[in-house]
């Protein structure tokens, strides 16, 4: 039996978050809270054009401003790059161009052209305005759908090395056109998803301090991957990794945007060795919306074929995804997942897909919570369209096709192996919580009164904790101090996913300790073992495995020491309440504090040959390639057909993430993702005009959901154990995957009596009114 499974006093309970005290009292430490002696500040000079040639840069006026130390251009920084690959892709995978500062020409509005260093951010911003850049404007293409073909079609080219503007692509099996031509029911739609972005409450930022005398680099960063940032920085600068230390204290949200260092991060790292003190860069909100990258933005044609009973015969998806000008490698690699996962949690005999990733003169694609989310959006929207075409309730159509637990293991039509899941269970639970029949009665009564209510479902299956490459391992050190108190060291870091709380719960149970005796140290590469960080819904399963291995090792040492001290065999000892007790004689016990004191200060009393160490370090390697999680989202709404305003009235999520380490944490992760998906369905749109000018670079124009738009969420939990330690699965991304299609389906259900279907997002009031007016309403 593993250490975690031997005692479950805390795991599975709603333990309060240990990080909340400092965060809620304003005592967190974010990058902007870091101050170093002699620190200087950075500000980027950014392009006002979507595409232009740089004929010259004159920094004389900026350098004359008091307090300005330097103005760096591409020729100052870019040649210093040694290697710029990240572990998410690896050093041998072909990558797209990504120069730190713009070289030769700029490729989107916000492209960093120069870097100003000054005594304060205020002076740096003033100086940035004084840097004169001679631009020669060039033709730009902001709409990636019009970019395909590039010079071959007589249009602008984003990168000369890609004259057709196509970064890459892939196709699976070709579609079975015979099925689509002969099936009893075939539906086909174009589904367009707009650009929307993570918008973390804390923007990007870092403080970098170079100590020339020792050749050491210290980085305080807002990052999801401190150890990989350390490795990336060492490669970038060509210095030994042991001379680089990354410190991540608190991070105000990441959501994928802070996994891979971007071009601005590279610039700050490169410039840090050229300035007189530590260098701080904090991105402002306009920069974040304009330059931190884009997400989603997919356009595709999806098809489904059914027999006369409503059973799937075949599905096909053909799509293109915008990767902007300088994409990070992660989301480009995950674009294939849209096609691979398109059959979803359903019994689909045949599936086909094809896609292209396309450059445009906009900010580059970056990862965002479930970067393959379009597959669920396109599939679930089309399922509802198919149900209406067959005069069938969408619930019944899903019920006929959704996979059951007794069908596992199951390999989807694209070769993805599902196991340890039962999508039908979460679906039926959501239907039950909703009380489907009662809603349909309420809907009919409302329609008779001229009110338009709608119900939307979305079911999905998602890979979590994918054990590929550097993601397959996670380190952990557990140390009992001389006082008997326990510290657990993991890569981790506080980025809103409550990893501090969950590892404390796991460790307390692994050692039989009282939870108040356990603390955690995370996010400092100088003291924590290597880990791949927060990405891919991996933190729960992977840290659980790492804590289990280290906890098992340390537990054995504690038991051996206690057995010797109490004069019994090891198998007679049990650990609980931070004590070792003889199972048959509870009066015979010794506290962890007493054991630790003797191990540290009186090791001669230990059995001969016994190590005095009360510390264990392990590097857990997952044996499970994927932990499949799944969920069903259900949403009800009312649409005002005069104004196009949508009011969400109920929201239900039934999710299976295996055993739950902490239900509060699970529900918090679901709620956060769901809110982001609701924003993507109704409000958020990182829009550009035809010339590539951003139209939503402030919160005046980029609309985020608030408590007014997001209803209270009702939760249902199905616990089918995953294949790893403790049966845990990931939960970080699911809420953001299922919520957008659930909301769109609810809107379409409400508008179905009027013959209106939303297939272009977002479903803003203007969009809905335009659709209604187009149908003569």
From TrEMBL:
<dbReference type="InterPro" id="IPR008274">
    <property type="entry name" value="AldOxase/xan_DH_MoCoBD1"/>
</dbReference>
<dbReference type="Pfam" id="PF01315">
    <property type="entry name" value="Ald_Xan_dh_C"/>
</dbReference>
<dbReference type="InterPro" id="IPR000674">
    <property type="entry name" value="Ald_Oxase/Xan_DH_a/b"/>
</dbReference>
<protein>
    <submittedName>
        <fullName>Xanthine dehydrogenase family protein molybdopterin-binding subunit</fullName>
    </submittedName>
</protein>
<feature type="domain" description="Aldehyde oxidase/xanthine dehydrogenase a/b hammerhead">
    <location>
        <begin position="25"/>
        <end position="139"/>
    </location>
</feature>
<dbReference type="Pfam" id="PF20256">
    <property type="entry name" value="MoCoBD_2"/>
</dbReference>
<dbReference type="InterPro" id="IPR016208">
    <property type="entry name" value="Ald_Oxase/xanthine_DH-like"/>
</dbReference>
<dbReference type="GO" id="GO:0005506">
    <property type="term" value="F:iron ion binding"/>
</dbReference>
<dbReference type="InterPro" id="IPR036856">
    <property type="entry name" value="Ald_Oxase/Xan_DH_a/b_sf"/>
</dbReference>
<dbReference type="InterPro" id="IPR046867">
    <property type="entry name" value="AldOxase/xan_DH_MoCoBD2"/>
</dbReference>
<keyword id="KW-0500">Molybdenum</keyword>
<dbReference type="Pfam" id="PF02738">
    <property type="entry name" value="MoCoBD_1"/>
</dbReference>
<dbReference type="GO" id="GO:0016491">
    <property type="term" value="F:oxidoreductase activity"/>
</dbReference>
<keyword id="KW-0560">Oxidoreductase</keyword>
<dbReference type="InterPro" id="IPR037165">
    <property type="entry name" value="AldOxase/xan_DH_Mopterin-bd_sf"/>
</dbReference>
């Amino acid at each position: 039996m593993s250490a975690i499974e031997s005692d479950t006093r805390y795991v599975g309970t709603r333990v309060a978050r240990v990080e909340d005290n400092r965060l809620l009292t304003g005592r967190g430490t974010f990058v902007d809270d870091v101050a170093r002696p002699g620190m200087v500040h950075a500000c980027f000079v950014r392009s006002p054009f979507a595409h232009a040639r740089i004929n010259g840069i004159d920094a004389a006026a900026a350098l004359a401003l008091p307090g300005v130390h330097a103005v760096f251009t591409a020729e100052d920084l870019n040649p210093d790059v040694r290697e710029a690959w990240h572990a998410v892709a690896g050093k041998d995978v072909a990558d797209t161009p990504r120069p730190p500062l713009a070289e030769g020409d700029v490729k989107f509005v916000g492209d960093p052209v120069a870097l100003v260093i000054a005594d304060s951010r205020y002076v740096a911003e003033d100086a940035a305005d004084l840097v004169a850049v001679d631009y020669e404007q060039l033709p730009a293409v902001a709409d990636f759908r019009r970019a395909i073909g590039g010079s071959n079609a007589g249009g602008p080219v984003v990168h000369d090395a890609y004259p057709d503007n196509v970064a890459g692509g892939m196709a699976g099996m070709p579609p079975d056109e015979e099925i689509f031509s002969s099936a009893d029911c075939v539906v086909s739609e174009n589904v367009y998803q707009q650009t929307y972005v993570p918008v973390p409450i804390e923007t990007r930022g870092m403080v970098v301090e170079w100590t020339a005398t020792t050749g050491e680099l210290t980085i305080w960063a807002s990052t999801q991957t401190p150890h990989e940032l350390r490795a990336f920085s060492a490669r970038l600068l060509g210095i030994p990794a042991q001379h680089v230390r990354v410190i991540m204290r608190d991070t105000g949200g990441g959501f994928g945007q802070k996994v891979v260092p971007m071009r601005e991060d590279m610039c700050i790292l490169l410039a840090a060795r050229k300035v007189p003190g530590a260098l701080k860069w904090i991105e402002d909100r306009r920069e974040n919306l304009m330059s931190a990258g884009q997400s989603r933005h997919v356009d595709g044609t999806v098809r489904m074929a059914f027999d006369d009973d409503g059973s799937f015969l075949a599905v096909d998806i053909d799509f293109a995804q915008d990767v902007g000008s300088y994409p990070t490698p992660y989301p480009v690699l995950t674009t294939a997942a849209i096609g691979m996962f398109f059959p979803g949690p359903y019994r689909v005999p045949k599936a086909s897909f094809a896609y292209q990733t396309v450059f445009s003169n906009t900010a580059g694609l970056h990862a965002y919570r479930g970067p393959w989310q379009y597959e669920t959006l396109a599939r679930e929207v089309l399922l509802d369209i198919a149900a209406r075409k067959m005069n069938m309730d969408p619930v019944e159509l899903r019920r006929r096709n959704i996979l059951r637990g007794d069908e596992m293991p199951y390999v989807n039509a694209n070769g993805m192996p599902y196991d340890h899941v039962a999508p039908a269970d979460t679906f039926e639970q959501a239907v039950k919580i909703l009380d489907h029949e009662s809603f349909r009665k309420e809907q009919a009564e409302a329609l008779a009164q001229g009110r338009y209510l709608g119900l939307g479902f979305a079911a999905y299956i998602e890979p979590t904790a994918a054990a590929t490459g550097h993601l397959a391992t996670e380190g952990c050190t557990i140390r009992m101090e001389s006082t008997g108190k326990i510290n657990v060291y993991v890569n981790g870091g506080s980025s809103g996913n409550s990893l501090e709380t969950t590892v404390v719960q796991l460790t307390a149970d692994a050692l039989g300790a009282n939870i108040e005796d356990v603390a955690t140290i995370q996010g400092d590469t100088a003291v924590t073992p290597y880990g791949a960080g927060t990405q891919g819904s991996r933190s729960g399963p992977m840290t659980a495995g790492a804590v289990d291995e280290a906890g098992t090792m340390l537990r054995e040492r504690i038991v051996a020491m206690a057995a010797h001290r109490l004069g019994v065999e090891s198998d007679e000892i049990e650990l609980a309440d931070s004590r070792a007790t003889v199972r048959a004689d509870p009066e015979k016990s010794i506290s962890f504090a007493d054991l630790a004191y003797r191990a540290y200060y009186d090791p001669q009393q230990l059995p001969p040959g016994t190590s005095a160490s009360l510390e264990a370090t392990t590097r857990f390697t997952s044996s499970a390639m994927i932990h499949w999680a799944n969920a069903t989202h259900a949403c009800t709404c009312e649409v005002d057909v005069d104004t196009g305003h949508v009011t969400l009235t109920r929201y239900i999520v039934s999710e299976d993430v295996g055993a739950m380490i902490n239900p509060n944490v699970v529900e918090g992760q679901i709620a956060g993702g769901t809110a982001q998906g609701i924003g993507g369905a109704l409000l958020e749109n990182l829009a550009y005009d035809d010339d590539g000018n951003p139209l939503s670079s402030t919160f005046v124009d980029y609309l985020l959901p608030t408590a007014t738009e997001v209803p209270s969420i009702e939760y249902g939990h199905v616990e089918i154990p995953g294949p790893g330690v403790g049966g845990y699965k990931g939960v970080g991304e699911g809420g953001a995957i299922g919520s957008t299609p659930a909301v769109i389906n609810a809107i379409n259900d409400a508008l179905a009596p009027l013959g209106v279907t939303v297939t272009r997002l977002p479903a803003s009031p203007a969009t809905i009114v335009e659709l209604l007016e187009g149908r003569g309403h």
